[in-house]
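pasting for the record
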Amino acid sequence: MLATDASLGARQLKRLAKRGALGLGRTASYAANGSGDIVIAFSTAQRVPHQGGSPTHSFHFLLDSDNQMDHLFAASAEAVEEAILNALCTASAMTGRDGHFRPALRDNLFP
């Protein structure tokens, strides 16, 4: 999941999520059939009042022109990659079904 406070529309968020998938690829995922590798992007920039106020609401979005989105695209790929690496490095050892044991990666990296 990618959350941003940038004021983006639905089309821009879809494009951002696609770049987030590049972060999965950087960590050796190739989004195999049934892998469940998906990226969802949302923005917290706009608030819509649910009660009271005006029946209409105007939104302001970042323009796509002049490559303004390039920094957000790079940040989304880097954020997904960093989140995966952090999860791998902080995971604990575990024993799964039928006694399958997987040691913690951090125990091998930092003995």
